[in-house]
Amino acid sequence: MRIRQLPNDLVNKIAAGEVIERPASIVKELVENALDAGATRIAISTAAGGKSLIRIEDDGFGMGEEDLRLSVERHATSKLPEDDLDHIATLGFRGEALASISAVADLRIATRPKDAEMGLQLRFVDGDAVISPNPMPHGTVIEVRDLFKNVPARLKFLKSDRAETNAITDVMKRLAMSKPHVHFILSGSDRQTLNWPAQPMSDIEDDFQGDKNRLGQILGLDFAQNAVPIDYQRGPVRVRGMAALPTYTKANSLSQFYFVNGRPVRDKVLLGGLRGAYADFLHRDRFPVAAIFVDLPSQDLDVNVHPAKAEVRFRDSGLVRAAVIRGVMNALDAAGFRASKTVSDATLNAFQPGGTPPPPPADASGAPASHVAPNATGDGFAMPQQQQWRSPSYMAPPPGAGMPRMQEVHQPSARMETTSEIPPEDDDFPLGSARAQLFENYIVAQGPDSLIVVDQHAAHERLVYERFKRELSDGPVPAQRQLIPVVIELPEEDCDRLEEAQEELAQVGLGVERFGPRAIAVHETPAILKHPNVDKLIHDVADQLAEWDNISIVRERLEEVAARMACHGSVRSGRRLRAEEMNVLLRDMEATPHSGQCIHGRPTYVELKKADIERLFGRR
After folding, report:
1. What angle do CA 593, 597, 600 make, to 5 degrees?
2. pLDDT in tens, 4-34
3. Which of 78, 80, 104, 91 has the alpha carbon at shortest distance from 11?
4. Is 24 exposed, middle or buried (0-12, 13-18, 19+ CB in 10 A)?
5. Long-range CB contacts for residues 351-354, cutoff 8 Å, separation at least 24
């Protein structure tokens, strides 16, 4: 066949295949247009999951006749005034949405600018755009009916009405989070109405209250009560948002939301940053809840890498990832020993008749004996399966094997060991004063208005681990010299990256130097690793330098070993503690960040308010 020019209707259908994946894609494109038009109120109505009707009404600028006629042409846009793709300041800019929608559905547009006496309506008759007068308030109303009516093959690939409705809701949640000053209403015959009123804008640049209120509207009161604010600046990159406490988690990553310069995105750099920030706190099958907003200069960002504008590319992805990790970690550090409210809620539920049974007694290592169901709502903390602490294949045998062991009681008694000295009743420490030790593992403390139960092994494990981490970060990591340098062959580009990172690697105890064009000689390894698999360690470092342009993999491995040492070096279950020892442990917890959960992701203490206890006994 000879090369020929495709007809316009076929070109538009092909473009629709890239831009219009499902009804939610149409909602996203049209709401983004409304936001770019300065709308402060946007109402979305749907029917049959958006397959039969999508209606978007806004109070934005509106369009005149010339703009209205051009709006349905391919690659026509008002959002690139200087044709500069390096400084995109709008959500939409490609000029494909309306043309693509009109190719696969019935499209009608009604619009009126604020300064016009009469509005206009555009509809298609036999493929031609026809414009007629239309009385209406200022703004724009777009109706999309009978999606994919002329492309039945695409229609068969859509999911059920319920699934498509949920996809639209998810898109709207993300857009509403990104624009808290806009009033959104989502309604229709296929759903319950969602109404998210606009949050007032502050004159203070650093005021994040509007964003916090909007996140509370969408993610719920539970999230608002169990999340910490994020605000961190690293060079030109600013990271804002809210992140849940490590004891408030989900079974999947669907409750993680990422935004770059106000644009909802899916990006592996941001996903990896959040995962890295929580690496010390979560069990491997649990996921944090967070909304992360990243702001950076537009010239350091490419948003034109995906037809649906759902992905972005950073000029310096390593800087962005590091900013996200540090921003989230600083927020979690500021939370101190705080644990999520859902831990206490689950405990109270266990006390109720017919409630979730309490967790089984811990074994001598402090690990739970079996899985415990989450609380009745399905949110918050769910006790993980028994933790098997596996070291990477290049790790040495457990370094704690030679450490002095504390006396253990493998079958702790079920009687209460009361403390010999009762602290003053007016003690007002946040975690209270020790009153008793139960089952030779659980410290019972009394606070000003609460009862606190502490898992002594889990709590001390976190304290020891944080001390190890401080030692690792205080200066160069101690290194051990290899008797004979280990020479490792690598691709030339990997050798170049390792040579450039030579000084940084030395700070974490890894001494390397170039050994010919395609080899690296390793002279020193971190002392804490004892006898590592040097070949695998270097390959891991090279892989991370290629992907992220940093060597955090080495520090992560050191911290994994420190975690194992903390587990072996902490106060064991079954050891009876004196009152002074219990109170010292409580005070250390109050002074140590992240002490609300152990290194395996389990909570270290449960707090029951006096009012909650009184309700259990019908006193309230």
Report:
1. 120
2. 887 877 777 777 766 788 999 999 999 999 9
3. 104
4. buried
5. 351/616, 352/616
| DSSP-derived 3-state class of residue 376 | coil
What one-character DSSP code corresponds to residue 143? E
Written as six digits, the tokens of 357 are 């049974």
The bridge status of strand 249-250 relative to strand 287-288 is: antiparallel
Q: Token pair for residue 94?
A: 């490609």
**What is the arrangement of strands in the sheet containing 227-234, beginning at the earlier edge strand?**
227-234, 237-244, 290-295, 256-260, 263-265
Which positions ≥6 away from 466 have C-beta within 8 Å? 592, 593, 594, 595
Task: Work out the burial of residue 136: count CB atoms within 10 Å of its CB; fewer than 13 is exposed, 13-18 middle, 19 or more buried.
Answer: middle
- Give the phi and the psi of residue 299 in degrees, each rounded to 5: -75, -15
3-state secondary structure 242-295: EEECCCCEECCCCCEEEEECCEEECCHHHHHHHHHHCCCCCCCCCEECEEEEEE
Element containing residue 14 per DSSP (H, E): helix 8-19
452 is written with which tokens? 């606190």
What confidence tens digit (pLDDT) does each residue in 303-345 have? 877 766 778 889 888 899 989 999 998 998 888 777 666 666 6
Neighbours of 496 (CB within 10 A): 14
Give the bridge partners for 490, in sequence order: none
- The two beta strands, 139-145 and 416-418, are unpaired
Pairs from 271-276 (Cβ < 8 Å, separation ≥ 24)? 272/321, 272/548, 273/320, 273/321, 273/322, 273/323, 273/324, 273/325, 273/328, 274/243, 274/324, 274/328, 276/321, 276/324, 276/325, 276/552, 276/556
Retrieve residue 363's tokens: 């074994």
